[in-house]
Design brief:
3% of the residues lie in helices and 61% in strands. With 170 residues, the protein is an all-beta fold.
Length: 170
């Protein structure tokens, strides 16, 4: 996922890519490996290298160990569906769709057996006071939904499995 974030009046280009056990975060060319975990209440602990910061979002303010920062999400581009394009899958391939961050499931938009189109919302996750839609990676059929509304999930947790359809012959 890529987004532009305004922090204390300065815009930053940020890219977040899930990896086993955490994330790779790129901020204007610099790359960081990070892990997150829910810290109770509305806080998330973010570990980058050996440093751990407690993060809490309240409205347009991010409260970190080093103080309060004004934040505003300027632009978001969801790129989770690229995995299927980079690694073309045959019809019948089942893809596990994972949460890119820890959070609480606020809505499950599909059930097992539901047909889905690439980019269609499978699950809505609330993380750090923001709602994030987890999209279908391609056209197919939902084979399994692994979460329920109200449930708290960890980063990289499978939320659903989708059996992909092959490319249509047009």
């Amino acid at each position: 996922m890529r987004f532009r974030l305004d922090v204390d009046g300065e815009q930053r280009e940020i890219e977040v890519e899930p990896m086993t056990g955490g994330f790779v975060i790129r901020i204007e060319g610099a790359t960081y490996r990070a892990r997150t975990r829910l810290a109770g209440g509305d806080s998330v602990d973010v570990r980058i290298g050996a440093k751990t910061l407690r993060l809490q979002l309240q409205g347009n303010e991010a409260i970190l160990d080093d103080g309060v920062h004004r934040v505003r999400l300027v632009e978001v581009s969801e790129e989770g569906a690229e995995v299927v394009e980079r690694h073309p899958a045959r019809a019948g391939t089942v893809v596990d769709v994972r949460s890119s961050m820890p959070g609480r499931v606020v809505r499950v938009a599909v059930t097992a057996g539901s047909p889905v189109r690439r980019g269609e919302t499978l699950v809505v996750l609330e993380a750090m006071k923001m709602q994030n839609e987890i999209p279908a990676p391609g056209d197919g059929v939902v084979r399994h939904v692994a979460v329920a509304e109200g449930e708290t999930v960890t980063a990289d947790r499978v939320v659903a499995s989708v059996e992909l359809r092959g490319p249509s012959a047009s």
